[in-house]
């Protein structure tokens, strides 16, 4: 028997195809069917135009696309031996903006995407988690909305901000602005203490053992109880390989297969299209999705908060992984654990901003005057590693390639190797369980079909 299910509430939608054997999913295929064409749109455009186009690839992770673009353009300068000077202030404001976007996304994902589906396995009434009505749902929504206001202070708006440009940022916050941003972040910290973890913030940040699960008393505890009741500590395991291409003051670059390796060779990142629709070949029956498959050194690697926690050696999640591997439970806990560390990191970064420094130093060479150059960039986005690759010819974009986190996690199989989410879904005993496994990766269809 084969079942086709449209999965929504994943920032877009996907088609989940499942084959069954003895009431268990024996094979799965994930199709992304809404082509958008940003890479083609960028061809022939002025390089700086990409700063406006790429943040519109996604309404949730536009900051990540913006930073990936500006990093790629600055790497163009470096590759022609005209490395730009970027002030510490500009670097801090860029990282703060990206952090805030991830914080906002993690809160919304937990309360609006994953938790309601798990509650429904047990309860007909979602109670305080009821969308648009429940007190906790409204509290989470308000907290996320307040947090993102601090990003609007930097970018002038959210989503689709374009305040990062080669040479720095076009924002110059005052002490009052920084104080307001800190207040918004503190609001999120209090929400984490009171509702998410149910323990003091400092105490949570010291978690380093599986036994610390017993200290939780907030919604993470409620999730933990529901997860164990439904065996999510055993469900959703995949290849147990992890990668993080980008790095920041919180995240480290690297990969884990059998052991951690922090040095990566980006030339080993390859896309494959044997099952992917192309403009020229949309009628081929072997092709079923607009998503490409992407591997590092011919192997699939999971990206995202769990990968970042493993590579960054965060004790609490490393200990959970020892017991529960790359299960749905560990994956969800890693994202909420990252929320706490992002809040702490962002408060620290805001305190480091020196408003007396320049926000922007103008490049000496205009990108439109560059005859030929190439560059790549990598950034850690909400859902994982984001890769941008640009080629300029005669002052115009000749080629622009984007590889998003969902392509890493939910792309199709390659040769005999199942994709990350494909492998994780196999073994699920119902479509509801399969969809929860799928959502545990924080799926973004519109990024995938850019």
Polypeptide structure, described:
This protein is an alpha+beta fold. It has a domain at 2-236 and 326-370 and 417-448: Cytochrome-c3 Hydrogenase, chain B. Helices cover 42% and strands 16% of the residues. It contains 15 helices and 13 strands. It has helices at 38-42, 50-53, 62-79, 88-120, 135-155, 175-197, 201-205, 219-229, 305-311, 315-324, 328-352, 405-410, 420-425, 431-439, 445-448, and strands at residues 2-7, 14-21, 24-31, 164-165, 168-169, 242-244, 254-256, 260-261, 269-272, 293-296, 372-381, 384-393, 396-403. The strands form five sheets. A three-stranded antiparallel sheet has the order 1-2-3. It has a three-stranded antiparallel sheet with strand order 6-7-8, with helices on one face. Strands 11-12-13 form a three-stranded antiparallel sheet. Strand 12 and strand 13 form a beta hairpin. Helix 6 packs antiparallel against helix 11 (328-352), helix 8 (219-229) packs antiparallel against helix 11 and helix 10 runs antiparallel to helix 11 (328-352). The longest helix is centred in the first third of the chain and has 33 residues, at 88-120. 49% of the residues are buried. The mean pLDDT is 95.
